[in-house]
Specification:
CATH class of the largest domain: Alpha Beta
Radius of gyration: 27 Å
Keywords: ATP-binding, Nucleotide-binding
InterPro entries: ATPase_NBD, Hsp_70_fam
Organism: Stenotrophomonas oahuensis
Distance between the termini: 12 Å
Strand content: 15-25%
Protein name: Hsp70 family protein
Number of strands: 16
Shape: globular
CATH architecture of the largest domain: 2-Layer Sandwich
Largest sheet: 6 strands, mixed
Number of helices: 15
Structural class: alpha/beta
Helix content: 40-55%
Pfam families: HSP70 (PF00012)
CATH topology of the largest domain: Nucleotidyltransferase, domain 5
CATH superfamily of the largest domain: ATPase, nucleotide binding domain
Length: about 450
Amino acid sequence: MKIGIDFGTSNSAAAAVIEGQVVPIRFGEAEQFRTTVYFPEVMRDPNDFELTPALEHELHRLIDAASREARAAGQDRAPDALRREALRVVRRQWMEEQMRQPLSSTTLLQNAVYGDEALEAYFEENEGNLVQSPKSMLGYNLHPRARQTITGIATHILEHIRLTASRQLDAPVRTATLGRPVQFRSSIGAAGNDQALEILHTAAIAAGFDSVDFLEEPAAAAMHYHAESADEHDALVVDIGGGTTDIAHARVGGTRAPTIHRAWGIARGGTDIDLALSLSGYMPLFGRGISRVPAHHYVEAAMVQDMPRQREFRQHSYRDVDAPWGKRLQALQDTGNTARLYREVERCKIALSSAPTHDSVLDFIERDLALHTSAEQLGAAAAGYIGELTQLLAQVREDIGRDPAAVFLTGGMSRAGYLQQAVAAAFPQARLVRGNPSFGVVHGLAWAASH
């Protein structure tokens, strides 16, 4: 059995074609899950404590020191009492040392929680580590240990998908077609694409797949559109996701197999709008543009997908920053609060796509702290991304030399009316077809996997 897998920046999904019909894989009650992983802090069991020669030596040292202090003070303390007190100190020191030692990747991954439950578990436990959008890190310059961790995260996500699909389909799932963007987000140029594909392939094999192949996501969406089109025609497929924006020029519909002529892509998407909205709308509440806190601190706080930047933000000291900014920044450094703030930004972006205003309650930072945001503010925050999208669409228009018969829109961000307008304006003679925002790509991957 072969399935299609959309390993997304924001959400992941899978599907298979059974008897000529696309069958979505269900994860609980949903057909997709948030691509987020929570690693709880795993406490060592104090019952594992035992006296090694080194600890025995430390125990006797503490007993001797306490005995000398007692004699100097004219006290007569029983040897058993001295030993119990010293043993308590040694055990406490041993536990503290155990907690300072890093857990193995295997231990971390065995205790991981995925999807929306990851966020809820992180907020409930108020400790541990949260990894959001691991796909966005695949093409970055990674330390070997970080690469091993990211590969492990991808492995467990893909294994979760494979096992869930196997149970639902009542058949072993051993092969898959994985979607990939035209351009992964990368800090090392074209080499980032090769690295990302290598990590995903390694992770898939480790997850129990015998073999996997890759298909560019706009080409997959074209296959989905082709399956729903009775008449053959020329089309552009525009896939606007959380981390990337991809376009394919294709001949679809009719009885012949679809033909993909060319693909374009940029490593920009909905998360870039989230970042801009967070910086322009939310971070002024923490002093951005007002206090003397360096501007890059606010970028570090807002980029929850970037683990190194999150660590750097938590290491800054804001004790001497003027009120109320200092206290608010210190509160933002508390475990889970950058993730809570990012969730509020996401909610705001989604709400303002169909409503004129939105109110965010930020009482996890400060009592009665709230923010009123307008659709105009979202438009201003999205302007940078819209500019890049417009340039990409203009390049596509120049390359193909005409308007296609239809433009097919898919991807989570294709729900946004302002992005639909930008695409329609670039190809005024084309018919705009709004596809399934969440499942256009994964349905196409399922069709590809079935051939």
